[in-house]
Each structure stands twice: as C-alpha cells, then as structure tokens.
Specification:
transferase; EC 2.6.1.42; 9-stranded mixed beta sheet; binds pyridoxal-5'-phosphate; single chain; D-amino Acid Aminotransferase, Chain A, domain 1; aminotransferase; alpha+beta; 2 domains; 28% strand; 6-stranded antiparallel beta sheet; 8 helices; 271 residues; 15 strands; D-amino Acid Aminotransferase, Chain A, domain 2; globular; BCAT-like_N
Length: 271
C-alpha cells in the first residue's frame, strides 16, 4: 500500500521513476532485501550496514541517515499492517548530467510479497547447474542481475533450481545465494568473489567447525552435504550438482540442524 519514494511516504501506486535514471539507462543502482516476521524487521542492523556500504562503494549519496532509514521502515511496517513479508530498499543511480557519471540516487523502500521455496525443496533438496561466471562487483549488492535473469531459462531447462558459479575450477556462489559444503563434519564456504550474505553471517556463527576459504568444484562434488543460503530461501539443501549426486543424495543432518537453529534464532528475535 505505502512506500517511501525519494523523500516521503506515499501510496505505492503513485511512485514513479524518471526514464533517464541511470538505473534504467545503465543498469546502475544498489538494493537490499530483508524479511519481516511478527511485524518486526529481521536483522535490520545488518541489512542497513550492507545497504549503506553498497551506496558508498558505488559513489551514490544516501539522503537519509541510518536512523532515518530505520524510522521509515518501522513506519512502513505499521502503515502497511505488515505481519509477515519483505521490504526492498533501492537506491538508483539517479539522473546524470552526462547520462553516465553516478548522480544523486533516488531512494525507494517498498513492501514486497515473499516467494518462498516449497516444502518439498527443503525435504528433497535441490539441483544446481554449474556455470563458468563471476558476478561483476561481486562484493556489492548492485541491481544488475542481467546475466542471471538471462541465464535462468537454461538452468530451468536443465531441471535445476539455480546455478553454481565457478571460475578456473573455483566456486564463488549461486545467482542469489551463498554456497557451502559439509565435509567430515566441517562447514566450508568460499571467501572470494561473493556477496557476503546476511544469512551466511548467521549460519557461520551457528556452525561449530568451519573454514572460510577457496573451494574447488572437484572438492564440492566429493562433499558429504551441500546447501545454499539467502534471505528468502534461508537454507536449501543441495543434493545434486550437474549430474553428480552429493553425499547420499538426500538433505544432510548437519544442514538440517543448521536450518533448525537458524529458524530458532529468528523466532527468538521476533517473539
Ligand atoms: N549472493 C548473491 C549474489 C545474492 O544476490 C544474495 C541475496 O540476496 C546472496 C548471496 C545471499 O545474501 P543474503 O543472505 O543476505 O540474502
């Protein structure tokens, strides 16, 4: 119903974007996305940190301070009577004099329906399609997902849920989530060419034994378990990469235990 557009809260249907905004003509902008549960934003401090860092890293000025952003978000949850849902914050590249240099970004914060994976995906696990690629500006949450959007047709045709990006044999992440394996009880996740997920941060805190380091495709195929994490998926077990079965071919016990611990943490935070 209501969103924040540039400098005030308005009806979402009245929000507009100039067609010459750099977000439109150059695909330049940043965003973030968090969930709301029991009318409370989950891990908001972490998402605000990342959003503010992305804005700085892309030379886009944010008109609102951290406290003002927080205030607006709480007001939007209230005005939209939101109990469960998601919010997207976008800072566009803005209007630019030469249609190229970063301008003064326009800020939008709006409620969004959650597209959650089906229960079957958690109980049976998913397949990833390996693909040679590195996300440009991987550490920054830019709005540029042209490549994965374009490529989604191919992974769907292959019967996969998503992709697993790798370059020179080394894994980075999936299109919108981080990737992990479990080997001999230890959690291993790549350190380079990734977006540092907020879910990843908490999963790493919940894991007993862990290594954050380079992870090769060969090593991943020999894993006992594998999974991906993201804000909307939380933790989805991976049971197949290309034509290779991972572990027993079923979601693994350590993965499922981490999922349960993460859900408990969330419930504690919003109860
Ligand atoms: N990697 C990429 C490229 C993403 O787009 C995302 C998700 O939003 C993630 C990882 C996972 O991050 P988070 O757990 O903060 O949603």
């Amino acid at each position: 119903k209501y969103c924040f557009a540039r400098d005030k809260i308005i009806l979402t249907e009245n929000a507009t974007l100039h067609p010459m905004d750099l977000a439109v003509i150059r695909g330049y902008g940043i965003f973030d996305f968090f969930r709301v549960s029991n009318s409370k934003p989950l891990f908001l401090d972490h998402y605000l940190d990342r959003f503010i860092n992305s804005a700085e890293a892309t030379y886009l000025g944010l008109a609102l301070s951290r406290e003002e952003l927080s205030q607006v978000i709480l007001e939007l949850i209230d005005k939209n009577d939101m109990i469960t849902g998601g919010f997207r914050m976008i800072l566009t590249g803005g209007l630019s004099e030469n249609h190229f240099s970063p301008g003064k970004g326009s800020l939008f914060i709006f409620a969004e329906e959650l597209f959650l994976p089906s229960e079957e995906k958690y109980s049976k696990g998913i397949k990833l399609l390996g693909l040679e690629h590195v996300r440009p500006l991987a550490k920054i949450k830019t709005t540029n997902y042209a490549y994965p959007v374009w490529h989604s047709k191919i992974w769907k045709e292959a019967g996969a849920e998503d992709v697993l990006y790798h370059q020179d044999g080394m894994i980075s992440e999936s299109s919108r989530s981080n990737f992990y394996i479990i080997k001999d009880g230890k959690l291993i996740t790549p350190s380079k060419q990734i977006l540092e997920g907020i879910t990843r941060h908490h999963i790493l805190e919940l894991a007993d034994m862990k290594e954050i380091r380079d992870l090769g495709m060969e090593e991943a195929l020999q894993a006992d378990e594998a999974f991906i994490t993201s804000t909307t998926k939380v933790l989805l077990p991976v049971v197949q990469i290309d034509n290779h079965k991972i572990g027993t071919g079923k979601p693994g016990p350590i993965s499922l235990d981490l999922l349960r611990k993460f859900r408990n943490l969330e419930n504690e935070l919003v109860s």
